[in-house]
Write a structure and sequence with these properties.
Layout (H helix, E strand, L loop, with lengths): L3 E6 L3 H10 L5 E6 L4 H15 L4 E7 L5 H16 L3 E8 L5 H4 L5 E3 L5 H12 L8 H12 L6 H15 L10 H16 L7 H17 L7 H15 L5 E4 L2 E7 L4 H11 L5 E5 L4 E6 L5 H9 L2 E3 L2 E5 L9 H16 L12
Parallel strand pairs: 1-2, 1-3, 3-4, 4-5, 7-8
Antiparallel strand pairs: 6-7, 8-9, 9-11, 10-11
Helix pairs in contact: 1-5, 1-6, 1-8, 2-3, 5-6, 6-7, 7-9, 8-9, 9-10, 10-11
């Protein structure tokens, strides 16, 4: 019987490889990723919020992340509370970080093994519990991840191939992980699967190293070839277009699109306002509170930046920094911060006029 599995994993090669393993099982996967720190709790809260929307039998699977006692206690209590009210939930944590030793001793759902990487733990667990089929291209790839994640340099071929796979993940920065978590994960897993299937080729590490650029282009390409920058920009602009209803903001009647951690605003931002002229501006907020605003001859974004944060620039390109901005790992929390800022600023006098509706 298939089940729904909410899978939270780390953001490195080992973490994403755990999700590649689980993608080969017959179950419905709803996946999330987090780095260590505050993001872990943000994702756990997001998982619980998602589960609360429908009563179901499900498993919360956590891989390549150790939980600290307060995080584990919160999750355990939330799951117990839901189960008391009609849900049927279980927790499974599969990890290899020794820093989870004290927490693992407190909870039967916390499985810790420091002798294997998380991908190998998940692979062997999935063979036994999740209907994963052994063999094929996945098994050799698990050896690769285990060799490089545990730094087994004596397993030279797997180790060298794993080093290139590590760079595959670390250099896959084209998509914002906060804004486009599902799409970013799909991108990384697609390239990892392609890399896994190349493992047994002669000089595989060199071939993969040379193929990475082409693999990226192939993912973003629709028909005509172009540079990676242009292909990814076209892809991202189209993706932004699908998010318009949830990512629209307003200031003095001017309609804007709010992105977070998008980067490359000169190219992508200008591409967006050209493709979607019904928006007067696009603003990208960086993780440290930097603002990058782009317009297209509709509103003076330099005046806008000045009113918001004392910034400035040109009529179609401006920026600044939000004092006291709190880094977020969920887009909805970023949007609330920015909407609160704009609501406060809109009530204050400024040089930017209100938009006159046609």
């Amino acid at each position: 019987m298939t089940k729904t599995i909410y899978h939270l994993s780390h953001i490195d090669l080992d973490g994403y490889s755990c999700q590649l393993v689980m993608a080969q099982t017959p179950h419905t996967m709803i996946s999330f990723n987090a780095n260590y720190g505050a993001e872990v709790m943000d994702r756990l809260e997001q998982i619980i919020e998602t589960i609360k929307k429908t009563k179901q039998t499900a498993t919360i699977l956590i891989s390549d992340l150790n939980l600290y006692p307060e995080e584990a206690k919160w999750l355990n209590n939330e799951v117990n509370r839901l189960n008391e009210n009609g849900w049927s939930l279980t927790i499974t944590l599969l990890d290899h970080h020794g820093s989870g030793k004290d927490t693992a001793a407190q909870y039967p759902w916390y499985f810790l093994d420091t002798q294997r990487c998380a991908t190998k733990i998940v692979y062997e667990y999935a063979l036994e519990h999740y209907g994963l089929q052994a063999g094929g291209w996945l098994e050799p790839f698990v050896k690769v991840v285990n060799a490089v994640d545990l730094w087994h340099q004596d397993e030279e071929e797997d180790f060298e191939y794993g080093k290139v796979c590590m760079r595959l993940i670390s250099d896959a920065k084209e998509l914002s992980r906060v804004m486009f978590g599902d799409e970013d994960r799909t991108y990384k897993l697609a390239m990892l699967e392609q890399a896994a299937q190349m493992r047994d080729l002669p000089n595989a590490n060199i071939l993969l190293d040379e193929a990475l650029h082409t693999m990226k282009k192939d993912f973003f390409k629709d028909d005509a070839d172009n540079t990676l920058d242009n292909l990814s920009t076209k892809y991202i602009v189209a993706l932004l277009g699908t998010k318009r209803s949830e990512m629209t903001i307003y200031y003095k009647g001017w309609r804007g699109f709010l992105s977070y951690g998008l980067g490359n605003t000169s190219i992508i931002g200008n591409g967006f306002v050209t493709a979607f002229p019904d928006f007067d501006f696009i603003i990208d907020v960086g993780t440290r509170g930097t603002l990058s605003i782009r317009g297209h001859n509709q509103v003076d974004v330099a005046l806008m930046a000045g009113e918001w944060v004392g910034g400035g620039g040109h009529p179609n390109a401006a920026g600044g920094r939000i004092n006291g901005f709190k880094e977020q790992f969920r887009y909805d929390k970023v949007k609330r911060q920015i909407e609160d800022l704009l609501a406060n600023k809109e009530a204050m006098p400024g040089k930017l006029s209100h938009k006159i509706e046609e």
